[in-house]
Amino acid sequence: MNTLIAIGVLAVLVLIAEIINLRKMVIPMTVIGLLGILGYTVCNISVVEAYYNNMFVSTRFSNAFSSLFIALTIFIVALSNDFYKNEFTKIADYVSLKLFLLMGAICMVSFGNMAMFFLGLEILSITLYILCGADRKNIKSNESAMKYFLLGSFASGIVLFGIALIYGATGSFDIAQISNIAVSTSLPVWYALGATMIIIGMLFKVAAVPFHFWAPDVYQGAPTLTTTIMSTLVKVTAIATLYKISVNLLHQMPESYMNALIFITIITLTVGNIMAIRQDNMKRLLAYSGISHAGFMMMALTALGSASPNLFYYATAYSFAGMAAFTVLMAVCKNNEDELISSFDGLGKRNPLMAIVLSIALLSMGGIPVFAGFFGKFFLFSQAIQNGYITLVIFGVINSFISIYYYLKVIIRMFANYEETNREKLAVPALYSIIGTIAAAIIIVVGLFPSLLLNLFN
Amino acid sequence: MNITILLLTLLIGALATYFSGKKSAAKVALSFAVIAFIETFVLICQHNSGFNADYSVEWIANPNIHIALKADGLALALVLLNTLLTPLIILSAWGKHIEKTNIFYALVMFMCFAMTGTFLASDGFLYYVFWELALIPIYFIALLWGNDTFEARKKTVFKFFIYTFAGSLFMLVGFIYLYQKAGSFMLYDLYNLNLSSKEQYWIFLSFFIAYAIKIPIFPFHTWQASTYEKAPTIGTMLLSGIMLKMGLYSIIRWQLPIASDAARELMPTILVLCIIGVIYGSIVALKQVNIKRFFAYSSLAHVGLIAAGAYTLTTDGLRGAVLQMIAHGLVIVGLFFTAEILYKRYNTRLISEMGGIRQQAPKFASAFMILVFASIGLPGTFSFIGEFNLLYGLSQVNLWYALFGGTTIILGAFYMLRMYQKTMLGETNSKPFADIDKTEGIVLGVIVICVIFLGIYPKPLTELITPSLVEIVSYIK
């Protein structure tokens, strides 16, 4: 709770800084503030407490994910400095929106009450709609915001409808009570209906197939920094929330219900990957590969209740790899109209550091050992095998090497010696280099010492 | 000596090479490789005097994963091959202009590190990590420093990577399944597991795909010849000399003891595949015009026989396989080095454009001759001992296997001698051909001496590996 309040205060301070004309201070202040909050959250990770009649419940699960979200936000805020160079007068708005988004994300993993869950979801979504359309004069950005807003609010509506049905069935908004009632008594059919609607709403936010159609367009049109937020922070938040909701609502569901979820997982994995193969735009490629990563993370649903460390590990591995990849993308395509993969040609020569960072990020996403992504996949696969979902794992494996195919294509292009292009060196703002390097270092360190993260849950 | 020192030496060697700058990279890499060789030698001496260098420390508590290294005779023999060949491979490009030398040699050293790790690891997970790690450096070596145009080799290297990576993932699933059963990845826990015959069958197959691609066994060999051709010669040497031994070694260390019933059941099928590889490789080699592709296919024939020997499940077959792995490693590196020397002088890889070298370069011709004889398996060379054991092991299973497997010697003699005749004798090419210089002499000399010395006196090596093989066979039974 203190974490949430502190972030809220920080966001308001950012807005005040705007009023008293301290724009230059906004980013340093936010980063330092968030670092402090991160430290506080990590130190109090084992504190389990409920606030305001179980509205807000902090558990190890929520604390761990909140720390991850805060860490990701630090990266995003730090990237804002160079990204919004041309619109520096609005920097306070952008930064405070990101902080509000972070509050929404934290509410979504820490809720104890359906009302709080919905509030978190809306805080997150609305800030995101604004950020998507932030590039006002760009038609693509407008299109992206419009699409995301229409479809997203529709999904929110479905979630709300589901909450209402569950309230009708159980007479409670409290997630713990709902969970108890669901275990002890047999419930009317609209309980299952309500749970399904909430799950569908969340699957939309996760961009799981067949609710994924908005993702590539929205990702491509949105300003790249917003895409970064969507594909790292928001995706991870949505998955964590989906997991938490499933743990609480789905334990009395019949086998066939789980099979449907497994089926969605498999098609999410496969469709995302197959669509990624043919992309020539890097943002779309990362969007589709993000869809398949959502599928990997949904594997955690095969072990409701015991998968949280594994899910957390994968989420960390994926989001930092995404962060590194998008940082390089921003550095490389900052002056381009669009983000074609061909703009990465010869990056190994033009800027070796960025090329190495992107290689590490992509190899990690593809699941090559020592990088964190490999261990993430390994933990989820072993959990799924333990629970007897061997078919699912085989699909996971097949998709792993499909994904390696298109990640390698990008890597090859970077190290290609295309003599004819013969481009000059690529100058990258120092902050991008630092952030990319830190993200890549995190991928390696977390890969070498997975216990660092897994032990957060013991 | 602690076994981890060897691994650390190689890893630090890779880093030091990277940071040493372009001028001194080769020297730094070479000195670390030589240190690693000396350390291996010390380890073997200690092993022979009864010292147990096994090492185990927890890496991840849950799932239960250890950094566990096992230095028995079998592992040490292959580590010896690795650390002996690495300095020779580095020397083989001495003085040659290589772009970004420091990165290149750092990758070579890193690959040596990963391969040593694969041979030593006795925790399935750690083994898998090393196994995959070895793939990354060779991918970049072949991609960035290879022959031909970038577009052409991009395709080849891509195929190689996807192929081997896909195979390994099935092995990973196999390991995860074993972990669920045993609650640990440790070698002996997996050995002592009681698996039903159906489980063994699937585990065997999941491992088999990974190894069959790496070795390669027919029909998983399609990546091989073009990758050997397109990779720079150093990469080809690493691939053919050491990396494919990872697959052969893993059959003996992991696959057979864990899934022995399935191995016995599937033996006929797999032996037939291996022997098809032997005959197919020999016949295709006959038709090759490019000398690197020629050696690639002859290597396919030889490793087919080695794999067949390993799958006989007899002590003799296994011993023959291990001895022949080492012999083949030495000989094939030597042969690819001769191809490189020929290319350096003539700037061609076509056999038809070579000839008349013996008069101009007698030292080179004699060394080449010995390597050719060793490749054929002439008595007195190390390969003879290996092939003899292999064929003997095969004949214990069924005489026909030995007969068909033996065609490798007959066909091998035919195509190798024909190749020698075309390249070294005759009068086709009039370009001057300088005899080997000092560094080339060292590389060829060391290989030739090893091949002949071990051919006459293989006892130290046989004694080193036999106890571990007997132990493994006891688990197979």
Automatic annotation (TrEMBL), chain A:
The keyword Oxidoreductase does not apply. Its EC number is 7.1.1.-. One of its GO terms (biological process) is ATP synthesis coupled electron transport. It catalyses: a quinone + NADH + 5 H(+)(in) = a quinol + NAD(+) + 4 H(+)(out). One of its GO terms (molecular function) is NADH dehydrogenase (quinone) (non-electrogenic) activity. It is found in: Cell membrane; Endomembrane system; Membrane. The chain crosses the membrane at residues 27-48, 60-79, 99-132, 148-169, 189-213, 225-245, 257-276, 285-305, 311-332, 353-376, 388-408, 429-453. GO terms for cellular component: endomembrane system; plasma membrane. It is a multi-pass membrane protein. Pfam families: Proton_antipo_M (PF00361). Residues 113-403 form the NADH:quinone oxidoreductase/Mrp antiporter transmembrane domain. Keywords: Cell membrane, Membrane, NAD, Quinone, Translocase, Transmembrane, Transmembrane helix, Transport. InterPro entries: NADH-Q_OxRdtase_suN/2 (IPR010096), ND/Mrp_TM (IPR001750). It comes from the Bacteria. HAMAP family: NDH1_NuoN_1 (MF_00445). NDH-1 shuttles electrons from NADH, via FMN and iron-sulfur (Fe-S) centers, to quinones in the respiratory chain. The immediate electron acceptor for the enzyme in this species is believed to be a menaquinone. Couples the redox reaction to proton translocation (for every two electrons transferred, four hydrogen ions are translocated across the cytoplasmic membrane), and thus conserves the redox energy in a proton gradient. NDH-1 is composed of 14 different subunits. Subunits NuoA, H, J, K, L, M, N constitute the membrane sector of the complex. Belongs to the complex I subunit 2 family. This is NADH-quinone oxidoreductase subunit N. It comes from Myroides indicus. The lineage of its organism: Bacteria, Pseudomonadati, Bacteroidota, Flavobacteriia, Flavobacteriales.
UniProtKB/TrEMBL annotation, chain B:
Residues 122-406 form the NADH:quinone oxidoreductase/Mrp antiporter transmembrane domain. Pfam families: Proton_antipo_M (PF00361). The chain crosses the membrane at residues 73-91, 103-121, 127-145, 157-180, 200-221, 233-254, 266-287, 294-313, 325-343, 364-386, 398-420, 441-458. GO terms for molecular function: NADH dehydrogenase (ubiquinone) activity; NADH dehydrogenase activity; ubiquinone binding. It is found in: Endomembrane system; Membrane. Belongs to the complex I subunit 4 family. Keywords: Membrane, Transmembrane, Transmembrane helix. This is NADH dehydrogenase subunit M.
